[in-house]
Amino acid sequence: MAAEKITLSIIKADVGGYVGHTTMHPDLMNRAEECLQEALDKGMLVDFKVMHCGDDLELIITHKRGEEDEEIHQLAWDTFVSCTEVAKTLKLYGAGQDLLSDAFSGNIKGLGPGCAEIEMEERKSEPIVVFMADKTSPGAWNLPLFRMFADPFNTAGLVIDPSCHGGFRFEVLDAKQNMTIELDCPGEMYELLAFLGAHSRFMVNRVYRRSDGEVAAAASVQKLSYIAGKYVGKDDPVMIVRSQAGFPALGEVLEPFAFPHIVEGWMRGSHHGPLMPVGFEDATPTRFDGPPRVIAAGFQLANGKLVGPLDMFKDISFDPARQKANEIGEYLRRHGPFEPHRLPLEQMEYTTMPGIMDKLKDRFVQNA
Ligand code: F6R
Ligand code: MG
Ligand code: MG
Predict the structure, then answer these.
(1) Distance (Å, whole) CA 47 – CA 308
(2) CA dist., res. 145 & res. 219, Å (int)
């Protein structure tokens, strides 16, 4: 008999910041825990953890209902609505900002919150890492995912573990056209990089092990701006990565973040900045509303129970990455409103920028 499958669902939203867009008020975390505990008591969930990264509330849920389950998504939605009520009472900043619809309609995708899910047959031992970022966007995962699953200079297992030799398949979303393409590594690595480098438009949705089709990683790829048609806040992303025994080792999964690469999303979602790996306690971005941050929560799954989290980036060996991120952040900041610190014009079309063009449109004089 096939083993029973477990689904890990990470569903997140910004439903109110404390103070400004900095972090999460403990009352929201408590309310979220009450909502999920109630569902657990009813037998709907196997386990859950409530976390936050900056001002984003992160619901980490295990259950046996599969991916895109209406009741699980409804539960997350209701939890965010309930937390919004708390945020309104405390007059927290941007209460309910990521809930773009007045009502839930079957699937949380497209309604504002971000979501990454994997249904899996739990292995003999199932080490996983949940990455959560703030002040950035889903394209931030492209570079680290490529390094983990396709770059032998990062992942030694691609060279020395025969079970990785078949390579990995990347499912990539074109967020502008709402289309996906699958590309295999190592064979189609160059084509893949042509897309992944353009991370404001193309983003990795899922990664599969080619030898058996087993899912290795899943990311949230909702782009709030494209969904809403105007700027309504950030689409701070999450992702799940499975590790060890035929997947990259835990250290290979974390290693890409030792390089604080440049991502979009700093201040007003309109600036580039380095993605700084931090411990849970330090996920409180205050310098110029940043710089962008990522935390990593390690878990062992035990029949769906979430054993953890272990704070993976707390390790002092990530100190140099933090130092480098602060140096790069400082250097970029000196550019003030100039590109490349500020995003290029075409990526500002969903910000408040078009208002400036509109205000001044009659002042432009046509040259002969
Ligand atoms: C971070 C973020 C901030 C805001 C900025 C302006 O998530 O959203 O950088 O963009 O603080 O916020 P508003 O427009 O709400 O005053
Ligand atoms: Mg916010
Ligand atoms: Mg946020």
Answers:
(1) 11
(2) 10
Q: How far is CA 276 from CA 18, 31, 77, 293, 307, in A?
A: 20, 29, 29, 5, 26
d(CA 160, CA 177): 38
Q: How far does residue 132's CA lie from ligand 1's centre (Å)?
A: 19
Q: Residue 176, Cβ neighbours under 10 Å: how many?
A: 11
The pLDDT tens digits of the residues spanning 69-98 come to 999 999 999 999 999 999 999 999 999 998
User: What does pTM read for this prediction?
Assistant: 0.95
Residues with a CB atom less than 6 Å from ligand 1: 20-21, 94, 135, 233-234, 267-269, 289
Query: Which residue ranges form the domains of the chain, and what is each CATH number?
Result: 1-121 (3.30.70), 123-343 (no CATH)
Q: What is the DSSP letter of 349?
A: T
CA distance 366 to 306: 63
Ligand 2 midpoint to CA 366 (Å) = 40
